[in-house]
């Protein structure tokens, strides 16, 4: 079967969105460092995590965590 490159890109974007959603949940709980959350959510580097997090949420993980502190 032929898989179109756009289908692969959509799957990749979907996986990233799920990972960022999990990271947002973990940041709200405020129990772990951003670095630990990064790795536990499947990102290999902090810079990659920060780039995708900012792209999806429009803010840094630190800003997100600060905004959602209880």
What's the short story on this structure?
The chain has helices at residues 5-29, 34-40, 46-57, 61-67.
SSE order and pairing:
Elements: H1 5-29, H2 34-40, H3 46-57, H4 61-67
Task: Give a structural overview.
The protein is mostly helical and about 70 residues long. The protein is built from four helices and no strands. It has helices at about 5-30, 35-40, 45-55, 60-65. The protein starts with a helix and ends with a helix.
Low-confidence stretches: none
Strand content: under 5%
* Average pLDDT reading: 91
Tertiary shape: elongated
Defining traits:
0% strand, 4 helices, 73% helix, single chain, elongated, 70 residues, mainly alpha
